[in-house]
Amino acid sequence: MALRTAEQYRQGLRDGRVVYYRGEQVEDVTTHEQLSIGVAHTSLDYDLAEDEDHRELFSWADDDGTLHSRYYKHPASAQDLLNRREMIETSTRLSSSTVLLIKEIGTDALFALDLVSRVIDEKAGTDYHERVSAFHQHARDHDLALAVAQTDVKGDRALLPSEQEHPDYYVRIVEERADGIVVRGCKAHTTNTPMVDEIIVLPTRAIGEQDAAYAVAFAIPVNTPGVKLLASPFGASERRSEFHYPVSSKHHLVDTLTIFDDVFIPKERVFLQGEWQAAGFLANTFVEFHRYTAVSYKPPLCDLFIGASALLADYNGIPKVSHVREKLTKLITWTETVRGLGRAAAHDCRITDFGLAVPNVLLTNLAKHAFADSYHEAIQWVQDIAGGLVVTGPDELDMANDELRPYIDQYLGGAGVDADTRLRAMNLVRDLTASEFGGYNQLLAIHAEGSLEAQKITIFRDYDLERCKDLAADAMGVSR
Length: 480
Ligand SMILES: Cc1cc2nc3c(=O)[nH]c(=O)nc-3n(C[C@H](O)[C@H](O)[C@H](O)COP(=O)(O)OP(=O)(O)OC[C@H]3O[C@@H](n4cnc5c(N)ncnc54)[C@H](O)[C@@H]3O)c2cc1C
Fold this sequence. Notes:
By secondary structure, the chain is an alpha+beta fold. It has 2 domains: about 5-275, Butyryl-CoA Dehydrogenase, subunit A, domain 2, CATH 2.40.110.10; about 300-475, Up-down Bundle (Butyryl-CoA Dehydrogenase, subunit A, domain 3). About 50% of the residues lie in helices and about 15% in strands. The chain has 17 helices and 14 strands. It has helices at about 5-10, 35-50, 55-60, 80-95, 105-125, 130-140, 280-295, 300-315, 320-345, 360-385, 390, 395-400, 405-410, 420-435, 435-445, 450-460, 465-475; strands at about 20, 25, 60, 65-70, 145-150, 170-175, 180-190, 200, 215-220, 225-230, 255-265, 270-275, 350, 355-360. A hairpin with a 2-residue loop joins β1 (about 20) and β2 (about 25). The mean pLDDT is about 95. It binds flavin-adenine dinucleotide (FAD). Flavin-adenine dinucleotide binds next to β5, β7 and α15. Flavin-adenine dinucleotide (FAD) binds next to β5, β7 and α15.
């Protein structure tokens, strides 16, 4: 099997996995009232690889001519990274700005593991690279959907794992056996875990020798005994109407608390077991690939902000007003800065000795920081142009009431536009910026793929300050 259909993908999720939603165990995520919306959303990945218009971008033929999902292709050039970027931006745009994230993040982790396992093997004489390659091939050949659980619950942020009040604030190895390891702990915010076949677990941070038990990475099927998922219901109370919530009624992500209750991991699926010196290197390498994914999927949401604001400027009769043009210009500048820096990160990639293309770290972080740092301000520009109806408009049941509808039609029209169209534009802005889903997007902007401070640290660390000091010294007429 190389490419699966969407139906085969959904069938694979009916495997006895343990998922809880609002205190109750879910029998079947594909038919569950709320989680099935997420499954329908992620199914698009499989539809696109089948679709005539998108097959070329979303699939790739190996040397034998077998078709695979393009996500599983190791990027070997700037063009491979650009193709990957285009694939992520396209699927996100087709999902009205919500990333699918069932192969993007998993392959980010596979590329990082590919790179880091070679380094560990060389130093420690281990065979992790062989295991990583075998898992990569397995995931590719079975066209698997993958989640990545990296972020630990972390307890007191100022303390190392072994200094915490109890030892399980970071996932750790509790038993080492000849045939594998047993792990315990909990990861937070794991996106789409109920909708994937397997979970890749990575360490969150750099650690010292005393924390070697926390240096652990592995991959396991979601239905492995002891894995328990507590799905966040965030935003579910609102997802009832396409009129009020045109995006989130059809597209949303589901994040979980991912609990490992003494889970056995077979040896061939363990990719890091106690090599504490490599924990930070693996964590950071994953993040660098994943931030490139992030800056590939952000622009479609920015595009929707521009489009909705421009339409509402027209509908409100203010398209030529100077402050409106200024706000639209700022939205365009923000969007194209993120998009342009993302593309530049591919063009300026680094090719490793063994041929893996790594996106430019500085440019990737600049793009992610530019997006996240101005996100809340961008919402202010959008909401300012739209006006208060975003949160005060009538209900769709009022629209369906024959007595009330004439009032709505009479009073809520705009500049050359009927009330229904104007309200739909307001509702789009509400869904994206002023609903529970809008709040989710705000948190996603700030924290997902690492908080703002993490990007600043990377930008400072990766910048060539010495080059600028030399230039300044030259200009001063002194030598260094
Ligand atoms: C919608 C969403 C989806 C996500 N999806 C995934 C996923 O699929 N997989 C995954 O693994 N993770 C995922 N994440 C997790 C994301 O990477 C984290 O939210 C992010 O790294 C911040 O961690 P935190 O939420 O624990 O916040 P904290 O780390 O608690 O951050 C809060 C604040 O504390 C600061 N801080 C924390 N520790 C320190 C310290 N030691 N010194 C100084 N300042 C500190 C931070 O800079 C920040 O300002 C997701 C997050 C969100 C919001």
